[in-house]
Amino acid sequence: MDDKRQFASGSGIPIKGIYGPHDVKDVNYDRDIGLAGEPPFTRGVYSSMYRGRLWTIRRYSGVNTPEETNELYRREYELGQTGFSVATDVPTGYGVDCDDSEAFADVGDAGVPISSLKDMETTFEGLPIDKIATALEVSTESGCPLTAMYVAIAEKRGFDMEQLKGTTLNDFTASSSCAYHKGQLSPQALLRLSVDLIEWCCECTPKWHPMCLDSYPYREQGINAVQELGLILATAIQYIEEEKRRGRVPLDKFVRRFSFNMGIHNDFFEEVAKLRAGRRMWYKIARERYGIEDPRCWQFRLHVQSSGCTHTTQEPLNNLVRIAYQMLAAALGGAQSMHANGYDEGICLPTEQSMLLSIRTGQVLQYETNVINTVDPLGGSWYVEWLTSEIERRTWDYLQNIEEMGGMIQALTTGWVHREYRDAMLEHERRVTSGETVVVGVNKFRLGKEPYEVPIFRPNPETPEIQIEKLKKFKKGRDNDKVAQALRNLEEVSSSEENVMPAVMEAVKAYATIGEISNVWRTVCGVWSPPMIL
Amino acid sequence: MSEKKVKVLMAKPGLEGHWRGMVVVSSALRDAGFEVIYGGNMMPTEIATTAVQEDVDVVGLSILSANYMLLVSHTIKELKNHGKGDVLVLLGGIIYEDDFPPLKEMGVAEIFVPGTPLPDIVESVRKLTSAVV
């Protein structure tokens, strides 16, 4: 009976009933696996892994006004949190001011509104930014001005720029393909801005990670593990190619502080294998393809997040179980930092309760399960090693396909990436409707009535009004000649090949807003209409 | 005799950009024989003018922003202002059950949360529009 049924992984790889030595006969231990902390890093980027240092537990937060977010961060700091992940609201992420007529309903939604340096100052008031590491989780559009604002605070407080720690999520593929919004810049324009930011940080803030490749949003569109890995590596390659073309910063320095952010989905072993394959492939790309000498550049340093699209609105507590398995896969796969989603992601923005549970999910894994005792405990499993190689093989093919198209810029502007997403999301729905893909409590074992209620978070409905008033007043009060001058300068620099960041710094310090800065780029580069995909 | 196709405008009011749900639902409606205009992100006035220009029977709103009450009320107000108050308004997204009654009061005919089977959505739209055409 069993023999007739087809078993396959989440990305459609046929899986046999049992694996043995013959399945890994082409795998050479020294060449393909080796020790953790050594090429090709299949087993982990550091030799002692979690024995030396546990993964960072991060909480992605930001809510209502900058004042309220500041209170939240102070509480988090008192709890001992040393890494902050700033969630900005939707308009800020897209480079739109909160007093823009189109932003009225989205101000303070899903994050903190930061229209100007003033809001950033308020958000980090009283927090020792020389001691904490901050991740600015933003779209590429706002990556340059928001990083500039954070750096400007540090400068004002007299901190050593060389020591400033943090990360900017700065992935042009995510910004160009995962959400549509008005006034969107083209992939080329976004690539230019992100590379400017990387170059500038290499000079001014050497401990900042200006480039976090972020495939989490791509994966959320419904694509599989192989597609996700292929796209994130193709995006990284596009960045390296751009700097090679420019030739301003040596690649050893340019790539030094790249980091990666991926989703962790339901197929347990496939996700473990994906992370292992990703490390091996990145090593080959950095060292063998680009001849980068600095071993630190060969390390695929990784933050992961449990996959929101696997969470359900029905019986939301089931998501706690899904998230815990996903976090376990990430730990066995060797991630450096993890974010466990709120179990209530399918219902509302996270409550205090679900955020606390998110931290506890990581802590139980770290302190109670002993999975941290040894490095890469699944290494050497015939199945896992075979699957790692299989994912690597399939991902090289996928990557080659993108490169033959001309790289990520081409893949995005022609709509190919968007079609990949569309096909994946429609196929997923087809499978859920037919029952081929099971979602427990949704298309199988569904109850007629929701069996329980959970607490709900409601954002403050007054936030838009408060922020809009505040910004209008603020714009009247600042030195508007200085702002205009800084924006003219930014426009001039943006029209040339020069790095925009010094001009962005000047504009930010003059209290120009994120919308004003982004509008300069909309004027200079033009607005992009993403390829329609229906 | 050719049957008039039911015309649906699918739109996301506001800036928030999660579009997966809207693509999937638009595609299912199209496959079921509806004429679908995929509007993407639009401001409430734009939704109203498009609904008038295209003479649609249904406006499908997809909202993943927490401020859906505000977005829906603005959109319905604009539809009324543009003389399109009779159009069937449907809503999909992450919507709290407590808010269903006030949303229906505002004029939303039906609300679909994540996990609603696609065939159920299609069937529901078919039923609700049977009187329209």
Can you characterise this structure?
- The complex is a heterodimer of chains A (534) and B (133).
- Chain A is of the alpha/beta class and 534 residues long.
- Helices cover 49% and strands 7% of the residues of chain A.
- Chain A has helices at residues 29-33, 49-52, 66-78, 90-93, 117-123, 140-156, 172-177, 187-204, 216-219, 225-246, 251-254, 268-289, 318-333, 352-368, 382-405, 408-413, 416-434, 463-477, 480-495, 501-509, 514-525; strands spanning 56-57, 60-61, 83-87, 133-137, 166-169, 208-214, 258-264, 302-306, 337-339.
- Chain B has 133 residues and is of the alpha/beta class.
- Chain B has one domain: Rossmann fold (3-Layer(aba) Sandwich), CATH 3.40.50.280.
- Chain B is 41% helix and 24% strand.
- In chain B, helix 2 crosses helix 3.
- The longest helix of chain B has 14 residues, at 68-81.
- Chain B is globular, with a radius of gyration of 14 Å.
- Chain A binds chain B through residues 90-91, 94, 96, 101-106, 109-110, 178-182, 220-222, 309, 312-314, 346-349, 421-422, 425-426, 429, 433, 439, 442-443, 456, 458-459, 461, 464, 532-534, and chain B through 13-20, 23-24, 26-28, 30, 36, 38, 40-41, 43, 65-67, 69-71, 74, 94, 96, 98, 113-115, 117-119.
